[in-house]
Write a structure and sequence with these properties.
about 475 residues, Urease, subunit C, domain 1, 2 domains, 8-stranded parallel β-sheet, 7-stranded mixed β-sheet, globular, binds N-(aminocarbonyl)-beta-alanine, binds zinc ion
Length: about 475
């Protein structure tokens, strides 16, 4: 059935205007006024903004990590994402040294296929750029549509790859048209600092932050940027947490290196002091990179505003406080790293960013959706509101206030790191390819309705079949 969304204010990364939208066969068929309403379902969006669905470029759903498995899987995670105004996630497919990449991709498809309620793609981890892995890359990129590759520079003896792997991955990505992503922290230095802290009897959560100093992030970011320049390749730095890393990205960009940066909600609103909460509560705030000294927050906001950082990932990697985070009760290095953020990513950016006067409304759309769509080969199928694009839409009440709480969130975990925080603005209804996933704040979607999206190569547009022309 056709749907017409009337009276809303359409906001894209470029424009803000009042118009009606007609959806047919899951895509945006018309944008204009006085559209033919015959036989259409009419949705009145008066007083609301209409945003393109959020694109979360950084999630870990159903992922084994830190001696356990993330609590949110593709069903609970994508449902919570939809409640929060996100309609596409790109999840990290972990691979195993010595095993075919293809096997890992099949395993990740099996996790997602019957469960995802919104569309999704995968990034592919490269643990070792050996001949076997490099030989598989053309098929992964050209046939599987997995056009981004992830290298960890930290998590020694687990995920960490060496510089040779990073460099060879950058060279391959340049040749094949993929974007390389890095977790940029110096894993060797951190490993030494962690061992030393534990030897000295320092076991509390705050030592997680103290053993992963900002210099270790800045150094790795600068090294990855330099190797990208040497390879004449392209790089996306995930979860930038501090001035030391943001400055390295800005300097590399200024020198002409093709480098992009993402930050995450927790680095914009929380700080290192949260790790000192009593009764082991600090464990709820253990991320890598760690939360930083408060002064970094405005530096990150400013980098988003000026375009030195471009995207906001949730880094959704959720573990229960009781039963998972407490694996590290006597040893901070055993606290599973990560937190539940998929649901509040868009709200926090809107409330603290737009309402807080730090970014414009159009920048907000760019940061939460459009830029990720462009960088990761989804645009213009996703990431904008245009004729021919998927009708992935968020009808957003900009004025309502709500308090974030684990009591009301939809993630599967027993705490929310933003507990008690008041935010302004809320997604009311969310559509994925023209179907309501959330309607008037109720879940109306279906597990398995989300589709895997094969993405275009880096720098290329995703092909769409054009709809009718824009008539405003
Ligand atoms: O602490 C974090 N960030 N957990 C998720 C894994 C990663 O490093 O992105
Ligand atoms: Zn990471
Ligand atoms: Zn992550």
């Amino acid at each position: 059935m056709r749907k017409i969304i009337k009276n809303g204010i359409i906001v894209t990364a470029a424009d803000t205007y009042q118009a009606d939208l007609c959806i047919e066969n899951g895509i945006i068929a018309q944008i204009g006024s006085q559209l033919d309403e015959t036989g259409a379902e009419i949705i009145d969006a008066a007083g609301s903004y209409i945003f393109p669905g959020g694109i979360d470029p950084h999630t870990h759903l159903d992922m084994p990590f830190g001696g356990t498995v993330t609590k949110d899987d593709f069903e609970t995670g994508t449902m919570a994402a939809a409640f929060g105004g996100t309609t596409t996630v790109i999840d990290f497919c972990l691979t195993t040294k010595g095993k075919p990449l293809k096997a890992a991709v099949e395993a990740w498809h099996a996790k997602a296929k019957e469960k995802a309620v919104i569309d999704y793609g995968f990034h592919l981890q490269i643990v070792e750029a050996n001949e076997a892995a490099l030989n598989e890359l053309p098929a992964m990129i050209n046939e599987e549509g997995i056009t981004s590759l992830k290298v960890f520079m930290a998590y020694k003896n687990q995920f960490q790859a060496d510089d040779e792997t990073l460099f060879r991955t950058l060279l391959a990505a340049k040749e094949l048209g993929a974007l390389v992503m890095v977790h940029a922290e110096n894993g060797d230095v951190i490993d030494y600092l962690v061992k030393k802290a534990l030897q000295e009897g320092n076991t509390a959560p705050i030592y997680h932050a103290l053993t992963r100093p900002p210099e270790a992030e800045g150094e790795a970011t600068g090294r990855a940027a330099a190797l990208t320049g040497l390879a004449k390749s392209q790089l996306y730095v995930v979860h930038v947490s501090c001035a030391e890393a943001a400055e390295k990205i800005a300097a590399a960009r200024n020198s002409g290196i093709d480098i992009w940066g993402e930050t995450c909600p927790q680095y914009l609103v929380l700080d290192q002091s949260y790790l000192e909460k009593p009764d082991f509560e600090g464990a709820k705030y253990v991320w890598s990179p760690p939360l930083r000294e408060k002064h970094n927050q405005e530096i990150l906001w400013n980098a988003l505003k000026t375009g030195q950082l471009q995207t906001l990932g949730s880094d959704q990697c959720s573990f229960d406080f009781k039963g998972q985070k407490d694996l590290g009760k006597d040893d901070f290095s055993k606290i599973p790293n990560g937190g539940p953020l998929i649901e509040d990513r868009v709200s926090i950016l809107y409330s603290e960013g737009v309402v807080g006067g730090r970014i414009s409304l159009n920048q907000f759309v760019d940061i939460m959706s459009t830029k990720a769509a462009k960088l990761f080969g989804l645009y213009p199928q996703k990431g904008t509101i245009a004729v021919g694009s998927d009708a992935d839409l968020v009808i957003f009440n900009p004025d309502v206030k709500r308090v974030i709480s684990a009591e009301t969130h939809h993630m599967a975990v027993d705490y929310n790191p933003f507990e008690g925080m008041e935010v302004t603005g809320e997604p009311v209804s969310v559509l994925s390819r023209g179907e309501f996933v959330i309607k008037d704040k109720l879940f109306t979607g279906q597990a398995g309705a989300g589709q895997f999206i094969k993405r275009a190569k880096y720098g290329e547009a995703k092909k769409i079949s054009a709809g009718s022309t824009i008539t405003i």
